[in-house]
Amino acid sequence: MLLKLPTDENLQKCGCTLVSICVLCGKQAETSAYLFLNCEFAVAIWRWLGSKLSCTFIQTSFATLLTSIPQRCNSQLRDVYLVAIVHKVHTIWVARNSIRFSSAKVTLHATTTKIAAVVSLFGSSSTGKCLSCDVDLFDAFLVPPLYRRVADIITVVWKPPTITWVKANKDGSVVNLNAACGGIFRDFRGTFLGGFASNLGDCSVFEAELTGLVIGMEFAALYNWPRVWLESDSSSAVQAFKNPSIIPLWLRNRWHNCMQHGLFIISSHIFREGNGCVDTMASLGHNLTVTWYYSMSASLAVDFARDRHGLPNYRFP
């Protein structure tokens, strides 16, 4: 959406003839990337924002801004990061228009004050939770921390199937528009029976999750496992067994064929924290065609051992 704003660059692409200059610094022609990322005024705000949030924003492109958010931060802090990035960009655009159309004077102090006020407002309305170690970051924007309560933490444990049944956990993954899926089969003792990983090309996360279910049923039929417990961390995909109309048209024929194999199927949802083994398998699938694993990959060892011994994972709010 930023690339569609009527900056000088985009107006010129639409055929408008105009002399372009960045009104915030007056040093270069105005492009979307320069105005929001590389202008001296914008860079000063990114540095101020980074000092407040104890991070360094990567200003290479708009996409890399989001990668600056720590991968393992709590939900309320993530909300604060997102609000800060979005409203920093919005404030730059408002400042640019105020100078260009109203000849207003815009100072760095006034701009950062506006951003801080908006972050405080939206951060306070977040429904996320935080840890006590993040309090200093919230204090920087006067955001009241919402601490996690023990009662809010969900214990997630992988459960083996009953005897004569085989449990198939599966997962889908999409990275840079490249989809993949993976799955593993285990018996009532938690023994590894086999697994699969496959690249799926260009499709959505939901389609990748459904395709993982289909491939799981196809392998169950191939290896003569008539009683299959299919488990996924996608509740939407699991709903396909009750409502087949949500299945994409291109996948319905394979789904229908699976239903004709005579399998006894039960399906269930498990939180992502208890589906770690197949999350790894799905990641492997990005570089593979449909591949069957007769022996367990070493990368599954830790998560597999936790599942087999009934050790819990925890889902934090």
Task: Provide an overview of this structure.
This protein has 317 residues and is α/β, with parallel strands linked by helices. The protein folds into two domains: 2-148, no CATH class; 155-315, Nucleotidyltransferase, domain 5. It contains twelve helices and eight strands. It has a six-stranded mixed β-sheet, sandwiched between helices. α3 (40-53) packs antiparallel against α5, α5 (75-102) runs antiparallel to α6 and α8 runs parallel beside α10 (249-259). It is elongated, with a radius of gyration of 25 Å. The two termini are 31 Å apart.
Look at the structure and give the CATH class of the largest domain: Alpha Beta
The overall pLDDT average reads 90
Structural class from helices and strands? alpha/beta
CATH T-level topology of the largest domain: Nucleotidyltransferase, domain 5
Backbone CA Rg: 25 Å
Biggest sheet, spatial arrangement of strands: 6-5-2-3-4-7
Percent in helix: 40-55%
Terminal residue distance:
31 Å
Low-confidence stretches: none
Number of helices: 12
What sort of overall outline do the alpha carbons produce when their principal axes are compared? elongated
Largest sheet: 6 strands, mixed
Total domain count: 2
In the CATH hierarchy, the architecture of the largest domain is 2-Layer Sandwich
Would you count the extended β strands for me?
8
Q: Find the CATH superfamily of the largest domain.
A: Ribonuclease H-like superfamily/Ribonuclease H
Strand content: 15-25%
Q: State the order of secondary-structure elements, H for helix, E for strand.
A: HHHHHHHEEEEHEHHEHEHE
